[in-house]
Amino acid sequence: MTTAREIMTPQADCVGEDQSLSVAAHMMAELGVGALPICGNDDRLKGMVTDRDIVVKVLGEDRDPAEERAGTLAQGEVVTIGADDDADEIMHTMTEHQVRRLPVIDGHRLVGMVAQADVARALPDPQVGDLVEALSR
Hints:
single chain, globular, four-stranded mixed β-sheet
C-alpha cells in the first residue's frame, strides 16, 4: 500500500495568511509551482492559493495583489489528505473535490504536498488513466 507520505513532496512552502498575494506570486515563481498552501499564524493550514486565483479573483477585479492578503482567498474547508492515507484515498479525494494538488497533513501540521503527477508516478497505468480522466471532466 503506497501512502501519501511515500509519494509527497516533503516540507511544502507556505504563504502566511497575512502576507500579500504579491509575495505568494513571487514564491510561486521562485519555486516553479502553481499553488501554495496558506498557513495561519496559529501554524494551521487555512487554505490554498493558486496562480489562477490571483489572476481571476484579484487582477481580474482590478484589485492590487500587493495590498490583498493571502488569507482573503482561504475560503471554506481545506481539502487535505492524511500522511498515512493510501493512494486509493488520494485518488478518491482528488476526484471527489476536482483538485490536482492536496496538502498532506500529519495531525494538524502540514508535512508536504501531493500532486496529480506524484500519484501518476506511483500507480499502475490503468489507475492513472482513471484519475486523469476524472480530473479532466
